[in-house]
Recover the amino acids of this structure.
């Protein structure tokens, strides 16, 4: 007869082997992490989010804060910045300008709306235009733009070209807001064995002092005001080096004379006009409330099952208002309630069939009069909404992370 303790010993040995393997796996993972950390340290500071994303986020915030309606971006190249510019709620006109026609032609398709943007129209108009041309001359199609951005552009220009660009932007275009970003040369000492410039095409890289002096001279010449900030924070204890990418925010608050007469000097690569939601506030409210009521009704019926369904389904108005308020923070509860009070719901099973409870806290819907199968073809149905969300996630484009340029 076999000893009864043998299986326990065997199990114990298996457990010990598993623990040993787990420990070895953990040690191996730790070694890989240490190796990766050393590799990262050898390259110098790394940023999360990537530095270009931090720059675009800052530009978006500045345009939003200044309630900008029109903006021109010089040096757009791959047009990536458009995804941030069109998030500005007030913006109605975006012009993307670059001197490299071939790059613009290869990337101009980016300006077209994503599927979810077609399904959910904008509340204000938006026209995006891609133009091939140089920033040292002003085209009539960008005249009147309230903001101009030069994101990591000036360091690619020869001094004589840069002087013409400054005259074109600040002397002729004269937007109320100009955002300029450029590498901070003071930060470069944090990159091991670093020599030269961060990019082969850079003509210069300025220290904080040089950049500040240059911007202040622009303010003196063209009657602007400037504040400085940046993205890519330095390590603790190295704050005196400043940000990895330094940013100047210049604002125009003067009556500087502008007699510039611009012509069509750029070549248009592509233009797209975004669809605008022309529904009135009341129409939006009615359709959104109807959609939420129908969605909650379907959920309620699925949870109850056919055998347990009652003659009337009660849907809490508080739940309806809560769901709408999360989606539309600008909507007021009393406006939503007015729809129920005045019988303005008009779609599918809710049309003329709902009533309010005596307490006016519930919507009462007769089940027998509702055909939930019709919801599958409704333009507001839950499944379609889920699909749009899924497509939106799938369409999130990925871009290779920058190191520090």
């Amino acid at each position: 007869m076999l000893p009864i303790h043998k299986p326990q010993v065997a199990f114990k040995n298996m457990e010990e082997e598993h623990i040993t393997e787990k420990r070895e796996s953990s040690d191996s993972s730790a070694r890989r992490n240490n190796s990766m950390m050393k590799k990262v340290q050898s390259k110098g500071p790394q940023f999360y989010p990537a530095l270009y994303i931090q720059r675009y986020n800052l530009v978006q915030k500045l345009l939003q804060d200044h309630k900008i309606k029109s903006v021109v971006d010089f040096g757009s190249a791959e047009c990536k910045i458009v995804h941030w510019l069109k998030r500005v709620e007030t913006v109605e006109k975006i012009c993307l300008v670059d001197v490299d026609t071939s790059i613009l032609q290869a990337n101009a398709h980016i300006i077209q709306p994503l599927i979810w943007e077609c399904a959910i129209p904008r509340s204000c108009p938006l026209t995006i235009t891609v133009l091939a041309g140089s920033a040292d001359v002003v085209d009539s199609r960008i005249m009147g733009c309230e903001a101009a951005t030069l994101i990591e552009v000036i360091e690619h220009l020869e001094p004589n070209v840069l002087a013409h660009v400054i005259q074109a932007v600040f002397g002729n275009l004269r937007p109320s807001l100009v955002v300029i970003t450029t590498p901070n040369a003071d930060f470069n000492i944090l990159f091991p064995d670093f020599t030269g410039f961060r990019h082969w095409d850079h003509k210069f890289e300025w220290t904080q002092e040089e950049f500040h002096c240059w911007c202040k001279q622009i303010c003196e010449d063209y009657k602007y005001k400037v504040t400085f900030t940046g993205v890519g924070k330095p390590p603790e204890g190295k704050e005196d080096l400043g940000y990895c990418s330094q940013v100047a925010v210049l604002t125009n608050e003067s009556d500087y004379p502008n007699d510039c007469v611009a012509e069509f000097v750029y070549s248009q690569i592509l233009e797209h006009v975004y669809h605008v939601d022309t529904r009135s506030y009341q129409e939006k409210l009615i359709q959104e409330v109807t959609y939420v009521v129908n969605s909650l009704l379907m959920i309620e019926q699925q949870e109850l099952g056919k055998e347990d369904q009652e003659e009337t389904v009660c849907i809490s108005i508080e739940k309806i208002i809560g769901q709408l308020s999360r989606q539309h923070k600008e909507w007021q509860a009393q406006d939503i309630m007015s729809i129920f009070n005045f019988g303005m719901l008009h779609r599918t099973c809710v049309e003329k069939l709902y009533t309010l409870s005596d307490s006016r806290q519930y919507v009462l819907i007769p089940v027998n009069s509702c055909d939930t199968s019709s919801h599958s073809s409704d333009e507001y149905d839950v499944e379609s909404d889920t699909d749009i969300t899924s497509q939106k996630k799938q369409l999130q484009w990925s871009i290779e992370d920058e190191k520090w340029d």
